[in-house]
Specification:
Elements (H helix, E strand, L loop, with lengths): L1 H11 L6 H20 L4 H25 L7 H22 L4 H38 L15 E2 L5 E2 L1 H8 L10 H6 L5
Antiparallel strand pairs: 1-2
Helix pairs in contact: 1-3, 2-3, 3-4, 4-5
Length: 192
């Protein structure tokens, strides 16, 4: 489950999976199986190995989120990345430190909840960015524009006719400047 969480964080940050990622996943699975096999005879070593493996997964996922963060307002990526780093550090620190079990579980639950909120905020950031992108796309002109063959006015959905430049400027961020092309200059020369 933790590896899937990290894989989701990698993918969400824009990380493309490569062959080396499959090799890394296979190595993690091998270490995990080996640690489980060690439990009957070396429980402490196996437990430490599993904690270290989990910490590495969280630390690498958190670092990836923070290092590959796209520019812009992405509080969810920052929150998820930082909380995964804290969670990985917490696992490693308390592999060596002993504290009250209730305090340990409370801190662990808090980090898990913080990470979950970060993941939800990442999803909300992604939805917001897509909505902003869609809004920008809607402002661009698309489709077929009915245009007069003679005067070049454009008909809108209400059957009203508009000057080409005004129509486009009202519906996009485009602006017009006027000049005369060489063919029209020859055809309509004012000095003739």
């Amino acid at each position: 489950g933790f590896v899937l969480l990290a894989a989701g964080a990698y993918r969400f940050s824009g990380h493309e999976y490569e062959k080396r990622d499959a090799a890394l996943l296979a190595a993690l699975a091998l270490v995990w199986v080996a640690a489980l096999a060690l439990f009957p005879r070396h429980g402490v070593a196996a437990g430490f190995t599993l904690k270290a493996l989990r910490a590495v997964v969280f630390l690498s996922a958190g670092a990836t989120l923070l290092l590959e963060k796209k520019s812009g307002r992405a509080i969810g990526v920052e929150m998820a990345g930082a909380s995964l780093l804290l969670w990985g550090g917490f696992i490693m620190a308390f592999a060596f430190l002993r504290i009250n079990a209730h305090v340990y579980l409370g801190l662990l639950a808090g980090l898990q909840i913080l990470s979950a909120f970060g993941m939800v905020a990442m999803a909300m950031d992604r939805i917001r960015l897509r909505a902003e992108s869609s809004e920008r796309q809607v402002k661009t002109l698309e489709g077929i524009l009915p245009i007069c063959s003679y005067c070049k006015k454009i008909r809108d959905g209400d059957n009203s006719w508009h000057v080409l430049e005004a129509y486009i400027e009202d519906r996009s961020t485009a602006e017009f400047s006027h000049g005369i092309c060489p063919e029209c200059f020859e055809k309509h020369r004012p000095d003739r």
